[in-house]
Amino acid sequence: MKLTQEGIIKQGFEIECCHLRRWEDCPHASMTVPAARASDKHELVAKGGETEVYLTKAKQSWRGSAVCSELDQYNKKIGFQIAAGRALKQALSDLEG
Question: Bridge partners of 20?
């Protein structure tokens, strides 16, 4: 089953999602350059990246992340599904327990 934002929201969660991409000359995904300042000095790297998903429900929060290998093509949808699945697994375990 593919996780979707709509499906998670129907379960009563609020979602925040952050996609981090690498720019040329920045060695790590967390070292991002705002697009407005990137101009001609930096080029977006197609490989690697990170997706973070934060779920909130009943004043509790959970975080899931997915890190894309620098050998793999970055894909927002796959990153979201992995990160959201990890956050949702933690959330459901905590809420049921």
Answer: 50
3-class DSSP state of 68: strand
pLDDT digit string (tens) for 32-86?
Answer: 544 445 455 667 778 888 899 999 999 999 999 999 888 888 888 999 999 999 9
Nearest to 8 by CA among 94, 65, 92: 92
Q: How far apart are the first and last CA of the chain?
A: 23
d(CA 15, CA 61): 10
- Residue 25: other Cβ atoms inside 10 A: 11
| Contact assessment for residue 69 and residue 59, using Cβ atoms and an 8 Å cutoff | no
Task: Give this prediction's pTM.
Answer: 0.79
